[in-house]
Amino acid sequence: MDQAAEIELVRSLVAKHFATYDVKVSLDAVVVHITPDVSRLERDFDDLRKEMAAKGYIPILEYKGGEYSVAAVRKPPARKGRNWINLALLVVTLLTTIISGAYLWAGYSSSTDLFTFDNILFGTVFFAIPLMAILGVHELSHYLMSKRHGLEASLPYFIPSVPPLGTFGAFISIREPMPSKKALVDIGIAGPIGGLLVTIPVAIIGLWLNAQGVPNNSTPPGGSIVINFPFFFNLLALLVPQPEGIMSMHPLAFAAWVGFFVTAINLLPAGQLDGGHVARGLLGDRSKYLSLITVGALFALGVLFYTGWLLFAALIVFLGMKHPAPLNDVSRLDVKRLTVGVVALVILVGSFVAVPMEEIPMEQTFEMHVVGLNSTSVSGGQHAFFNMTLKNTGSVNISVRMDVNDVPSTFSATLYPTNSSSVNATDSLSVKIPYRGTANVTLEVQVHSLALAGKYVLSVTAATPGQRTTQRFTVQVI
């Protein structure tokens, strides 16, 4: 087709939907100036977009200097879909989530072997399947909403990962420019809402199963990973109260936690995330400032609280912080879409947690108390006894080293566990105390018969790698 015929084709297509009064040609576009019926502008442009797409063109609606125009550019050649890639990633992600499920179930059931039949079966049922369902419905919602707006979209691409998550989520590729602000908001919010509708019942069932677990108050938590729950998760926990002391989370409840986490990540109002789509639809080009604020907030959270946010901030920057404009960036949104924007904000706040995971520190702390008095009076040649209680207040099993110090030259002093024989008494004793446990130790002081009358002070030092405590004792020789 020669240039004149192409210009006439574009003009005639535009003229079927709008009154035209001028045509201009640039190196890459044919620009047709129009006089639209503003009340029908969005509908007429969408009809034009669909008709032009069939002819191999993409129209862009603009409003500058008080004039409306439609710039038509050639549609790039369609890329052939490679569904085998989607299928391969789906299979690999299923395998990695099954492995993660087996890993989680092994930890939950205190199994020493990972790849047992029970671990694989229950890990698949209670983690892999529900998590893949959450992610699948999330992406399917995007896909169906894209089709509803007449856009060509790919099937989901699942991203495998290592345990305990098993996946970094999934995404679809929309192979055409977004047609309007309305489409941006609709497509952006569809995934989080779809995923959330699956996550909520998974969370309720998971919390119920979690509540059936056996509390274990004697398991040291030091060095283990604890997850913090978003508002929505805590709200659902009010419906299914959780007993205290459960150290391992049921894998189904954890799958729901991952669902909320993925929802929050996707709704961050930055770049081309779901939240970025919604923000671009609501705020227009001003959304780039919100994108900057979001990345800055993630960076601050990463430095101050949770380093994982630094990865997400870098990923947003890498993928692009500025969202491309839709083809129709002129028409205003209706009240329904503005309400959707509020809903997106509520979902983000309810699903987000500043510190998703943290490690419980290996605290080796204790309390030392004297049972009774720390002073006594004895005659030369007699023995004085003092009893002490050590309580483990840390997060791990501990070993406390106790040493007797400042012993007068006419004294001897030894330590041994209370209610045990003093045969193996020593001036340097190692006491093992389990998590939340206690130990009782006796200090025996022998006063030489030639000791002069007077007040004598000696001390006992108790120490772990995390703490050092000294207790003084007074012996009055009479």
Can you describe this structure in just a few lines?
The protein has helices at 3-15, 41-55, 83-108, 117-148, 181-211, 231-239, 251-266, 274-283, 287-304, 308-319, 335-351, and strands at residues 19-25, 30-35, 57-64, 67-74, 157-160, 167-171, 225-227, 357-359, 366-371, 375-378, 383-392, 398-405, 411-417, 428-433, 438-447, 454-464, 467-477. With 478 residues, it is an alpha+beta fold.
Q: What can you see in these coordinates?
A:
The chain has eleven helices and 17 strands. It starts with a helix and ends with a strand. Helices cover 42% and strands 24% of the residues. The relative contact order is 0.09. The chain has a five-stranded mixed sheet with strand order 10-17-16-12-14, with no helix packed on it. A four-stranded antiparallel sheet has the order 1-2-4-3, with helices on one face. It is α+β, with helices and mostly antiparallel strands and 478 residues long. The model has no long low-confidence stretch (mean pLDDT 92). The chain folds into three domains: 72 residues, Gyrase A, domain 2 (2-Layer Sandwich), CATH 3.30.1360; 277 residues, no CATH class; 112 residues, Immunoglobulins (Immunoglobulin-like, Sandwich).
